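SECTION: protein entry
WANTED: fold as tokens:
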Amino acid sequence: MSEDLIRGGLPGAPDTAGTRPGAEPRPAGTPKAVGIVWALLGLNTLGSAGAKTIVPLPRSLIQMATMGALVTAFALALALNLRLRIRASAFVFLLTLLLVPSVISSLHLEVGLGALFRCTRLALFIGTLWLISRWWDGGLTFVRHHIRMYFAVLVLVAAGLVLSPGTAMPEYYGGRLVGALWPLTPPQIGQYSAVIIGLTLLLVLGRKTTRADAALVIVPALVLLALTHTRTATLGLLVGLVLAIGSLILTSAAARRFFAGTVLCATVAAVAFSSALQAWFLRGQDKENFSNLTGRAKVWDALLAAPRTTGEKVFGVGLGDKSFGGLPIDNSWLAVYHEQGLIGITIVASIIIVLGGVALLRPPSLPRACAIFLISYVAISSYTEAGLGDASPYLLHLALAASLLAAPASATPLSTAAVPRRRIPPWARR
């Protein structure tokens, strides 16, 4: 890897003075340890269930590692912000409100004591976001933290693929790429790949990194994304980039050139490789299996048809493992409705609407484009992936979008005492 990559310029510049032209230094006053807090939050959201690994890892051990990462992140954030200085954030405030239906429904213990454990986890997650919100200034610092964190996860996935290709692409997942060293599912790997591809590409267009450094991230991530055969991540990446680059077209010549070139290449590829693209997209499924979204529609219909009390409709049944009848729900909105009720649905919808509205009202800029990409990606993924109602990578993506949309803190001018005006006698004026 290049020296810039080792020093943390992935993709970007060194954090101190003396950066190369086009790179953005780390904002003054932002501790480097904040990046460690962000990485620990990402580790907590990796989950403990997934594919079989080369060395079997007990689920209890993985849960201890992920929960320990969250506790450490909260303690470190508290140590960095002992005076509890926070920024007003509608996003984190709405997340705090989401705790109310979560706790009320979980107290009934319909889904067991695990519901209260998940509420505690969500509270620590939100508390950590409050503590680091002090450094949300609309800059790109957290974008680089985000890219480095998930790039490290993808390096772990690639290492597992090299060490044991059979374990990394098992038959029970249809030959799709999974985590062989850490239990990660194809949708997870596809999500991480798509997000860092989109963010890195936007940094290139904004001239915040070089093409060589960006290629070290984008090329391997594209290969891993293709090996996962994840349609939702691919669609979210394409739509998110179209909207994000579209927001830069009027102010960036590089964005206009890239958009025109991409449209031309995509048209040629669609004509020349239509059969191959269709085969990759279908993943060997028949039309019936594809139409019901690989069985998801059956679970959704059963969840909506299940009898519920008024309390369950309003507050849900409590935070669970995002499953119904032993099968994954794989839809954020239905999962929130099942676990946090109509109140949870209202709050989550408000989060998306508020972030989207703020993004539309901001003037065109690279941070705004990155935020639009993240919001769009999460909104599209929410249809076939769960996670918007609990601590998850999707909430971390939205937290990054909120940090990008935060207005920079303006410096308060020093107040000066009023000096009494001295009376000048008439003879002195003459």
Remarks:
- Residues 1-27, 411-419 have pLDDT under 50 and may be disordered.
- The two ends are 78 Å apart (CA to CA).
- The longest helix spans residues 332-361.
- The first strand starts at residue 323 and ends at 324.
